[in-house]
Every structure is written in structure tokens, then in C-alpha cells.
Specification:
- This protein is α/β, with parallel strands linked by helices and 448 residues long.
- Helix content is 35%, strand content 17%.
- The strands form four sheets. A six-stranded antiparallel sheet has the order 10-11-12-13-9-14. It has a five-stranded parallel sheet with strand order 6-2-1-7-16, covered by helices on one side. A three-stranded antiparallel sheet has the order 3-5-4.
- Helix 1 runs parallel beside helix 10 and helix 3 (75-82) packs across helix 4.
């Protein structure tokens, strides 16, 4: 029996992978008896902050990571594809349909025993994958910190609001692609200079939810909209409100700024404000976001919110297989391990299951090759500088450099510029990644 604690993205993937490898799995989830500040259901793999698994570009880090996970038959990606909603060149899902599909698969597997209770301390004699996420309960987090002799680290993460589709004024808004990529899947609400100025004035003066720990930082890749605005009045126009490539059909020109909304349900009745995660009070969200043209009568299906996330000091605590160095038969997967993002969390669950499977069967474990996106991410967790460590997404920059002279960079720059260089590098990384993964899986199969 292998114990998986937490039925989020990482825990769900880990439990499924272990069961498919012939192990009996006890999957423990504390919800609904013990909930969190962000969750609203008792289902597996609930996506609370966003409904997106990021870019499908085959030459991007997330596109390559998806290809690697598909090679290993990821349950999370299979359910995500079945729950896909229009989102240009990104994989976004209907959250409820997706969670239901994952929950049904897990509860229907004969080797998975689902139980609902809070775990304060893992059983030392039972191989365990700890995948309780960034909202790990206080008793378990305290045990982990004491058992590993490591300080817990925290950051604040925020959630964007969702509005109903029929409350959006399409006489002001229009449908278009996001940054000229994919189909016309996003609703675009344009702002001229005066409208942007009024919006900024209201946003900067709006009442915010107090933070319980003012020394805890925000996660830089997912800043609240008002925190970005604090850095300068033009910051949003170069970030989530960037109008590049979006011709307003009424004027034929790019607007001064734009707010984009992405479909959140298969029915298309709910849309979320892309990049508008916030800690504004709910009453302030109504006032401020209704200043956006097209959202003057917006009805909120869910308001934005903020919560504190926990992660471990991975370079001190984990090796590159996600095994806890100081505690035998314990692995940590998902955002608790120091990765950031739904896709990365699910990939971590897969990697932890791969390692636990081999350990339980008495086979030497080996990290995924650093030439793979998954391997490079886990290598970063294990070998980053402890002083500078922070949560990270999958990035091509984590991969080993390509051999010098492999690409004619000068020729690519002359013919296609920076975009051509990036695409070529991404393609080579992708080919090298898949070859390395397949060789790793082949060797693993032979040793089994």
C-alpha cells in the first residue's frame, strides 16, 4: 500500500500513476470536512486560481512538458482535453467538468481507496507521497517543518474574478484572439485614454483586504492587479491590459488598453478576467471592475480573493526525484515542493509516483534527464541556491544549453529575426527532450 495525501493536481496524478502500475493506493483528502480559504468543492483536482494549463505551443516549455506527460499517459492531461474550452493556443478547461472527470476516474479505480480526513502526521512505515498543496493544513505543515529541520516559506497568491457571459455588453466588447494566437476565443473590452485613467484612479484608491503577514511576498508571476498598478500607471498597459495586435472593429486601431476575458465553462456562460487576480474587497471589485467598458452591468459568479501559499525549501529538503532527503519513503509533489502552476504540479505528481513505484519495488531510482523539461524543473528544485530559492514555473531557461553551432543563429536572425531564433531553439529542445525521455523510460522498463 502506498499513501498519497492530498487529491489536488499532483496527488490525483500520483495516485492514478501508482494504481496503473499495480500498486494499492490510499488517497486521503481533507475536504470537505476541512476546507481551505480557496477551495469550494470536495472534488479532486479543483482548479482555484485559473482554468488554464498554459500554452500549447509545441516549442514552448509548457508545450514540451505536455508532450512529455502524454508519453507517460497523464490522467490530468487526458481529463483536461475532455473538458477543454476555447482559449486560443492555450489549454483551458471547464473547471467543474474537469474536476468531476478526475474524481470519477480515481474513485472508480479498483486499486484506489479514497478517504476523507485530515492527516496531521504521515505513518512512517508506509511509503507516502505528500501532495497537500500550498494550502497544507497547519498541523501537517508544522510536522513537516520539524521533521525536515527546514523553515517553511510562504508567498501570497491571488484569484481573478469570474463574470457571467450574458452580463457583458457586446456592443462595447468584441471577440478576438489573444496576441494574434489561435482563434477569436477571447472577449475584449477596450479602454481609451480617459477610461484607462479613471480605471487607474479607482483601482489605486480602492479598499484592499488586509494581509495577515505583511512580510510575506507576492508571487511575482501572479501579482494582484492593484500591486502591479502600484508600480506605475503604465504597468498594466504593458502587462495584462496590453492591447498589442487587437484592432477594435469600431475604430480599426488598437485601443489604449484592453481587458481580456477567457471562457471558464463548456457552456460558455462564465468568463474570467485574464490576469486580474486581486485582493480588493468584494464591494470594491464591483465598483472598480464595472468601470471597464463592456462590464458596466457585470454580474460576478465569483469574486477575486487572496490567500497565503506554503512551500518547502526544496534545495535543502528534496533530491531530484522529489524524495525527502532526511525521511525514508517520503516524497513531496506539487506546489508544496516549490513548483508553481497547475501543469507543473501535475507533472510533479507523475514524477513522484515514478520514483515511489521504483523504490517500493526495490529498484534504484534515477532523476528524469535534465534535457527534459520535467527533469530540468526537478533539477532546479534540488540544486538551486537556497538563499535565492523561490517557486518556479517550467521554463526553457532551466534546460541545459544547446551545443554551440547547432543552429545558424545569424542566418535565422537575418531571415526571421528573434521569433525565428526562439522557435528554432524551442524545436531543438523539444526533439532532444522527447528523445531523452524515451531513453529514460526504456531503461526504466528494462531494469524493471
Amino acid at each position: 500500500m502506498i499513501h498519497v495525501i492530498g487529491a489536488g493536481l499532483a496527488g490525483s496524478e500520483a495516485a492514478w500513476q501508482l494504481a496503473m502500475r499495480g500498486h494499492d493506493v490510499r488517497l486521503t483528502e481533507m475536504r470537505p470536512g476541512q476546507s481551505t480559504p480557496a477551495h469550494t468543492t470536495a472534488g479532486a483536482a479543483e482548479m482555484v486560481c485559473s482554468n488554464s494549463f498554459k500554452s500549447d505551443d509545441p516549442n514552448s516549455a509548457t508545450g514540451i512538458l505536455k508532450a512529455e506527460m502524454r508519453r507517460m499517459d497523464s490522467l490530468i492531461l487526458r481529463c483536461a482535453e475532455a473538458a477543454r474550452v476555447p482559449a486560443g493556443n492555450s489549454l483551458a478547461v471547464d473547471r467543474e467538468v474537469f474536476s468531476t472527470a478526475v474524481t470519477t476516474a480515481l474513485k472508480g479505480h479498483p486499486r484506489i481507496q479514497w478517504e476523507e480526513r485530515e492527516v496531521a502526521t504521515p505513518e512512517p512505515e508506509v511509503p507516502t507521497i505528500l501532495a497537500t498543496g500550498p494550502l497544507t493544513s497547519e498541523p501537517l505543515a508544522a510536522w513537516l517543518a520539524a521533521a525536515t529541520g527546514s523553515d517553511r516559506l510562504h508567498f501570497y497568491d491571488a484569484i481573478a474574478p469570474i463574470v457571467t457571459r450574458d452580463s457583458i455588453d457586446m456592443d462595447r466588447a468584441w471577440m478576438a484572439a489573444r496576441y494574434d494566437k489561435g482563434g477569436a476565443d477571447f472577449i475584449n473590452c477596450p479602454l481609451d485614454t480617459e477610461e484607462y485613467g479613471r480605471f487607474m484612479d479607482a483601482l489605486l484608491s480602492a479598499e484592499r483586504v488586509p494581509l495577515s503577514d505583511v512580510d510575506t511576498p507576492y508571487f511575482e508571476a501572479c501579482l494582484p492587479i492593484e500591486a502591479m498598478a502600484d508600480r506605475g500607471r503604465e504597468t498594466l498597459r504593458h502587462g495584462p491590459m496590453k492591447p498589442v495586435g487587437l484592432d477594435d472593429p469600431r475604430t480599426g486601431r488598437w485601443p489604449h488598453a484592453v481587458v481580456q476575458l477567457r471562457q471558464d465553462t463548456l457552456a460558455g456562460d462564465h468568463f474570467n478576467l485574464v490576469g486580474f487576480q486581486t485582493r480588493l474587497k468584494w464591494s470594491a471589485q464591483k465598483e472598480v471592475f464595472r468601470l471597464i467598458p463592456g462590464l458596466g452591468a457585470a454580474e460576478f459568479a465569483r469574486f477575486g480573493s487572496i490567500h497565503r501559499n506554503t512551500y518547502v525549501q526544496a534545495p535543502k529538503v528534496l533530491d531530484a526525484t522529489l524524495a525527502v532527503k532526511s525521511i525514508p519513503n517520503l516524497w513531496i509533489a506539487g506546489q508544496l515542493s516549490g513548483v508553481e502552476g497547475y501543469l507543473e504540479s501535475a507533472a510533479g505528481g507523475l514524477a513522484a509516483a515514478f520514483a515511489a513505484d521504483r523504490a517500493v519495488r526495490g529498484i534504484e531510482t534515477a532523476p528524469f534527464p535534465p534535457e527534459t523539461v520535467l527533469g530540468s524543473l526537478l533539477h532546479y528544485l534540488a540544486h538551486a541556491s537556497p538563499a535565492d530559492f523561490g517557486p518556479t514555473n517550467a521554463m526553457l531557461g532551466l534546460l541545459p544549453p544547446l551545443p554551440e553551432g547547432l543552429l545558424d543563429l545569424r542566418g535565422l536572425k537575418r531571415s526571421g529575426g528573434t521569433r525565428a531564433v526562439k522557435a528554432a531553439k524551442g524545436q531543438v529542445h523539444r526533439e532532444r527532450s522527447i528523445r531523452a525521455l524515451e531513453e529514460h523510460l526504456r531503461q526504466a522498463g528494462e531494469s524493471a
